[in-house]
Design a protein that fits this description.
Blueprint lengths: L6 E2 L12 E5 L5 E5 L2 E8 L1 H12 L1 H4 L3
Antiparallel strand pairs: 1-2, 2-3, 3-4
Length: 66
């Protein structure tokens, strides 16, 4: 996992003192998430599952559902 290119949200502070969620995409298509303060703990998921989670988090207004 150390060879992955971890990326922080563009909304994160660049001062290095901000905790945030980091995301990395593996060549296999798997997505990996970790908390910046605990980089050894990684959650792995698929792109469709992440898309579903983000759609749910954005709520009905983002998906057109009521």
């Amino acid at each position: 996992m150390s060879t992955l290119n971890w990326q922080k949200s563009s909304m994160s502070s660049s001062d290095g003192n901000t905790n945030c969620l980091e995301l990395a995409a593996a060549p296999t298509g798997t997505l990996h998430l970790r908390e910046s303060t605990v980089p050894g703990t990684v959650l792995s998921t698929s792109k469709p599952a992440m898309r579903a989670l983000l759609g749910w988090a954005k709520g009905p207004a983002a998906t057109g559902r009521r």
